[in-house]
């Protein structure tokens, strides 16, 4: 697992991404700015100001301080579709240190537990399969909690329902519709984007976690899905492509109790626009 820079524990407020050595009001506002970026993904100063009810100048001061602490960095905003004239807007995104400051309490314990599971069955291929079995069991239990929510949503809104359920569990998930490349009248697929992953640092070492989560998404949504990007692999957002409703399903797939039929997680030939529109 990579070593991550982090703020000294004594200088960091509990549950905070900001050092404690400043007035409480400033620290609380700066935490709100960092948290908003965590929840909504890379954001411009104007977006943050509107979202938090602050002035743009005030937000920029907090962003400057977060950048100086190594908690955010600046990048060009991704443009979807045709790009207008002028340079792309600048947006602010959390660095790995910024993410670490929010969620890292049990990372080492979880890594040690998974390593013990692997070694207890002899390591190697058997160890990988044991970790995969644990990952599937964990995400299937999580998926079972989402079933009633997805069953209440129509087929065309099932991805949005899954995003809402994931957000309630801290994944800050959103959905972006992707037009079909085949014909303008064809139904659109979707990108399920998770702007935060509570187990990202563990998944760097144990990719079985990402694989099991993708499999459960397929089972819940009743169609094949494809992982396009993951935070664990260094991408800014975990992105999963979900085809439009009506894709053929397979009766031979494993499924959650009560889940709709699924085509598993075989790799589809997703529209070229799905890859271009990575969030």
Comma- or semicolon-separated keywords:
single chain, 279 residues, alpha+beta, 4-stranded antiparallel sheet, two-stranded antiparallel sheet, 10 helices, 6 strands, 44% helix, disordered N terminus
How are the SSEs placed, and which strands pair?
Elements: H1 24-40, H2 45-52, H3 56-68, E1 72-76, E2 90-94, H4 96-102, H5 107-120, H6 124-152, H7 158-168, E3 173-178, E4 189-194, H8 200-205, H9 208-221, E5 226-229, E6 238-242, H10 272-276
Antiparallel strand pairs: 1-2, 3-4, 4-6, 5-6
Helix pairs in contact: 1-3, 2-3, 5-6, 6-7, 6-9
Q: Could you provide a short overview of the structure?
A:
With about 280 residues, the protein is α+β, with helices and mostly antiparallel strands.
How many runs of DSSP E, i.e. beta strands? 6
- What is the average per-residue confidence, as pLDDT, rounded to a whole number? 77
**Run of helices and strands:** HHHEEHHHHEEHHEEH
Enumerate the strands of the largest sheet in spatial order, edge to edge or round the barrel: 3-4-6-5
- Give the overall form: globular
Distance between the termini: 25 Å
Q: Spans with pLDDT under 50 lasting ≥5 residues?
A: 1-15, 248-253, 258-279
Count helical runs.
10
